[in-house]
Design brief:
- The complex is a heterodimer of chains A (about 500) and B (about 475).
- Chain A has 15 helices and eleven strands.
- Chain A is of the alpha/beta class and about 500 residues long.
- An eleven-stranded mixed β-sheet of chain A has the order 1-3-2-4-6-5-10-11-9-7-8.
- In chain A, helix 2 packs antiparallel against helix 3 and helix 9 packs across helix 11.
- The longest helix of chain A has 24 residues.
- Chain A is globular and about 65 Å long.
- Chain B has three domains: about 300 residues, no CATH class; about 120 residues, no CATH class; about 60 residues, Arc Repressor Mutant, subunit A.
- In chain B, the strands form four sheets. A nine-stranded mixed β-sheet of chain B has the order 2-6-7-10-1-11-12-13-14.
- The longest helix of chain B has 20 residues.
- The radius of gyration of chain B is 31 Å and the shape is elongated.
- Classes of the chains: A alpha/beta (about 500), B alpha+beta (about 475).
- At the A-B interface, helix 9 of A face loops of B.
């Protein structure tokens, strides 16, 4: 039996904009909405494992505060009173932030990430910290010290990664929306595998201050939501210049909701042939092709384009990201915070044992790859070369956007795979990101929306990519296509 | 010792200067001076997860200032790099520093060795952040004898400017003079306290020796822990000698890092089997490149006070002073200003210079006054005194005593002379009668003087001064005596 979103929808499955509406009209209280989310969590969480930590007490207390605020006619933002899940690599002051790693199992941040400060100003409701691939390294959320996250559509399958927890919690109705992070597709790919909307903003639009760094030149925080409208609301809340982040863009933040127009007549859409890769699932190809036809029917001008340098994107990424990560993760040494092997007798031993015992395998693998790529004698061949090819990719995208307003592709080459299916060979896992990685290399904005379900009811996502700071184009395209696609399915959980 | 003349030391110095900015290089923590441990820290300088660096603009300006003063070319585009290595005093286990595109390059500093001038090339001036401080528990505080170590991160993140020389220095004395000159220069710019004792000025040396006239330079060693000018010179002297001995006994100098031990005056290789550090430098992705506009550089250049060497040169040409006077006066900014202010009130610069270098400085030293403007003698009063002496109202001998009182009380010379009734007697008729008296009372010396013994005149002048309680104008007295005696 397919349960479709619509009339009689449970409170926990409402979108943020519908919930806000009901809160304003006092049809429902924030406390009721929050309690509904926690009821749902207790129903499904042992099957989904999307949270590392729940903050029930403080959430309910906050909900009561919000109700008073609304009652007294106080200012209500788009995310006021909305139950949100936050990926556990975003620092929340006084609330344990683990990055799903043993090495930070008990780490309590002494400050809030800038995005959290912004959400707190709006009085959002923090449900808890979401499970993920350790240090955001992975495409399946299986690399977690706290156990893998399961896909609500089929709990024998992965939700994608590394923001598997945020994606699964939104898909399962545990959270109304969530914050994740995206370095090579870590928001978009899980959104695709979980049948929800996920977006990575232009690099620099959202402050990274307080986002535990994986690869500094690629990381961005972004929304995971039920629909594109909610995505725009979250963007409004989290975007903006931050002087604590030197890579933060200094421009006024537009109202992203103003770009939500269901009209793409005349929009020039490019289909990069390199992203319609050979290894793509036939059903994925089918669904994405269907969306392309829809776009044409709506008056968009669709054309194929070849961007040959994209063939190298995966290699470039798997040199640059681990290299930056190997340096970013050096600070985890047991000296000032985090896990320390207390038996160690010397400094070297303490470093070695704390890190060997504290880090998971994939993290160690990437640190080693990165250290190798940066080391004397190999730096020019690997890191420096990768930087140059990256510059070419950036340039090629610029040229493509000279001709097109947006580019369109599948988000993931496959639907959700089985837990354990790709863990034997890291390289097969890495291929999951083939469609999303080029976007991070060029710092472009991109959004994934559900295109439909496969025959075994697994979600398929389609990705819309825009030029730097052209969130307007991708939001418009995504909003229009979302309306046309009319995806309303929910997992049977 | 004769072997040493066969060899030429080749020395390069790396100096780290801690800036005296308000806050650290990449965060808003204030700099601390001996405050309680770990009280000037934040997520950024503690390397907490998710923290990010933000460049201290003032530190960049100070760095440009130093680079300009060292005649460097300022790169119009400069970037930060990460220098990766593990050590507990480094919160991130990488240091944000600069690598292949530093702020300033290709400069020089000339050092005056007396009989010659050595021009030391400055390879680079760059910016980086300081580490925290490690303390090793145990009685001696030395790492090999301790049970545990504690880290204080107050210093972590302090802005550091690194100045690297070309291997142009040719002796330990030159090395010392270079450090003295560099320190004076940076003090002049007022961007650092430059204290080797407090660690705001640190220096490592790269030393090798080569046979004079040889084509190839020798293998160099790095010497650390040279934390005073004296230790720098001594350490280098020892190391040069050691390397010469190694080469003379047909050995080879091993490239290594050596630690100067000031207890024994020797250098010792550090125990660790030194795998050469691979710092895996790569551009810092959390910071954007700094574009240094010419306009900014010029504005900063204008804020650099006239450098001591320039000033000394100008004193020579503008005031006609000899070189030693110029170097003395220009060496201290405060003294130089005092001198020039005085020159505005009085037109004999040499006279002013003599007094400042002589009695004035002597009194300052005696009373522990370090800067001339802290003394009670204003430039105006000094000049008034000099004019009074010129006018013959008091003798120069009397002036010393008047000056002492000026120094002690801050009073102007006129009122001192009046209250002590010191005015010199220059009235010829009064002096004439005193001279007559002395002549009649001292026939012997008078006769000697008539006979050509010049010494006798001092005796007679002394008698006149005694009778006038020191107030007689000595030059006039001499004239009158000669007139009367013939």
């Amino acid at each position: 039996m397919n349960r479709l979103a619509g009339e009689g929808l449970e409170t926990y499955y409402l979108t943020a904009h519908d919930l806000k509406d009901k809160l304003k009209k006092k049809e429902i209280s924030c406390l009721e909405a929050t309690e509904s989310s926690f009821r749902r969590i207790s129903e499904v969480e042992d099957r989904v494992n999307s949270f590392i930590r729940l903050e029930k007490e403080s959430a309910l207390a906050k909900a009561k505060e919000v109700d008073s605020l609304i009652a007294s006619g106080g200012e209500v933002g788009d995310l006021t009173g909305i139950p949100v899940a936050v990926k556990d690599n975003i620092c929340t002051k006084d609330i344990t932030t683990t990055c799903a790693s043993r090495i930070l199992e008990n780490y309590v941040p002494i400050y809030n990430a800038s995005v959290i400060e912004k959400l707190e100003k709006q009085s959002y409701i923090l449900l808890g910290k979401s499970n993920m691939d350790e240090f955001a390294m992975g495409s399946s959320s299986e690399n977690s010290y706290f156990g893998p996250v399961k896909n609500p559509w089929d709990i024998t399958r992965v939700p994608g990664g590394s923001s598997g927890g945020p994606a699964a919690s939104v898909a399962a109705g545990e959270a109304v929306c969530a914050l994740g992070s995206d370095t090579g597709g870590s928001i978009r790919q899980p959104a695709s595998l979980c049948g929800i909307v996920g977006m990575k903003p232009t690099y620099g639009l959202v402050s990274r201050y307080g986002l535990v760094a994986f690869a500094s030149s690629l990381d961005q925080i972004g929304p995971l939501t039920r629909d594109v409208e909610d995505c725009a609301s979250v963007l409004n809340a989290i975007c903006g210049h931050d002087e604590n982040d030197s890579t933060s863009i200094n421009r006024p933040v537009p109202d992203y909701r103003s770009f939500l127009k269901p009209d793409i007549k005349g929009l020039k859409i490019g289909i990069p042939s390199e992203l319609m890769v050979e290894g793509i699932d036939s059903e994925v190809r089918e669904k994405v092709t269907g969306v392309i036809s829809m776009a044409e029917d709506m008056g968009a001008e669709v054309e194929e384009i070849s961007i040959p340098s994209l063939k190298h994107a995966l290699s470039v990424y798997y040199i640059i990201a681990p290299s930056e990560a190997s340096s970013n993760l050096s600070r985890y040494d047991g000296v000032r915070y985090g896990y320390r092997d207390m038996e160690a007798k010397t400094l070297r031993e303490m470093y070695r044992k704390s890190r060997v015992e504290g880090f998971g395998d994939e993290v160690k693998r990437r640190i080693m790859i990165g250290t190798y790529c940066l080391s004397a004698g190999y730096y020019d061949e690997f890191y420096e070369k990768a930087r140059r090819v990256r510059a070419i990719i950036i340039n090629d995208f610029k040229k493509a956007f000279g001709k097109f307003d947006v580019l369109l592709s599948p988000t993931s080459p496959t639907t959700a795979f089985k837990i354990g299916e790709k863990t034997e060979d890291p390289l097969t896992m890495y291929l999951s990101d083939i469609c999303t990685i080029p976007v991070n290399l060029a710092g472009l904005p991109a959004i994934s929306i559900p295109a439909g379900l496969s025959r075994d009811r697994l979600p398929i996502g389609v990705q819309v990519i825009g030029d730097v700071l052209r969130e307007d184009n991708i939001l418009r395209a995504a909003y229009s296509l979302e309306k046309a696609i009319g995806f309303k399915d929910l997992p049977e959980l | 010792m004769g072997e040493e003349n066969k060899y030429q030391p080749v020395i390069g110095l790396e100096t780290h200067v801690e800036l005296n900015t308000e806050t650290k290089m990449f965060c808003g923590c204030r700099l601390s001076f001996g405050d309680e441990k770990n009280t000037h820290t934040c997520p950024v300088c503690l390397g907490h997860p998710g923290s990010l660096p933000v460049v201290n603009k003032k530190a960049v300006e100070h760095a440009i200032k130093i680079a300009l003063a060292l005649n460097c070319r300022i790169n119009e585009y400069t970037i930060f790099h990460r220098k990766n290595y593990f050590y507990p005093d480094m919160p991130k286990n990488y240091q944000i520093s600069q690598y292949d595109i530093p702020l300033g390059v290709e400069g020089h500093l000339e050092i005056d060795m007396g009989s010659y001038v050595r021009r030391v090339g400055i390879t680079r001036v760059h910016m980086e952040e300081d580490t925290g401080k490690l303390l090793h528990t145990g009685s001696t505080g030395r790492i090999s004898e301790s049970e545990a170590s504690i880290v204080d991160f107050n210093r972590a993140g302090t802005p550091l400017i690194e100045v690297v020389t070309e291997p142009d220095i040719r002796s330990p004395e030159e090395a010392r003079e270079y450090m003295v000159a560099l320190r004076n220069l940076i003090l002049f710019l007022e961007v650092s306290d430059c204290s080797m004792e407090e660690g705001s000025l640190r220096c490592d040396a790269n030393v090798s020796v080569m046979e004079k006239g040889a084509a190839k330079i020798g293998t160099k060693t790095e010497i650390k822990n040279l934390n005073s000018f004296r230790f720098l010179q001594r350490g280098l002297e020892y190391e040069v000698k050691r390397q010469v001995e190694v080469l003379e006994s047909k050995g080879r100098v091993i490239q290594q890092t050596r630690h100067y031990d000031n207890r024994t005056g020797t250098t010792k290789a550090l125990r660790s089997k030194e795998e050469a550090h691979d710092y895996r430098y790569f551009p810092e992705p959390d910071l954007v490149p700094i574009y240094v506009e010419d306009k900014t550089v010029e504005e900063i250049r204008k804020t650099i006070p006239e450098l001591p060497s320039e000033k000394a040169g100008r004193f020579g040409s503008e005031y006609g002073l000899p070189a030693e006077d110029c170097v003395f006066l220009a060496g201290d900014m405060d003294m130089a200003d005092y001198f020039e202010e005085s020159c505005r009130h009085y037109d004999n610069p040499k006279n002013i210079a003599n007094w400042i270098m002589g009695d004035f400085s002597a009194l300052m030293n005696k009373n522990g006054i370090k800067t001339i403007s802290e003394s009670r003698v204003t430039p105006e009063n000094l000049c008034r005194m000099l004019k009074i002496v010129d006018e013959g109202k008091i003798s120069s001998k009397m002036a010393k005593s008047v000056f002492e009182e000026m120094f002690e009380t801050g009073r102007d010379p006129g009122s001192i002379i009046e209250s002590r009734g010191l005015e010199q007697i220059s009235d010829e008729s009064i002096l004439g009668s005193v001279v007559d008296e002395v002549i009649s009372e001292n026939p012997g010396p008078v006769a000697e003087l008539k006979g050509g013994k010049e010494k006798a005149i001092s005796f007679l002048v002394g008698k006149v001064l005694a009778k006038t309680k020191g107030k007689a104008n000595p030059q006039l007295v001499v004239e009158i005596i000669r007139k009367k005696i013939g």
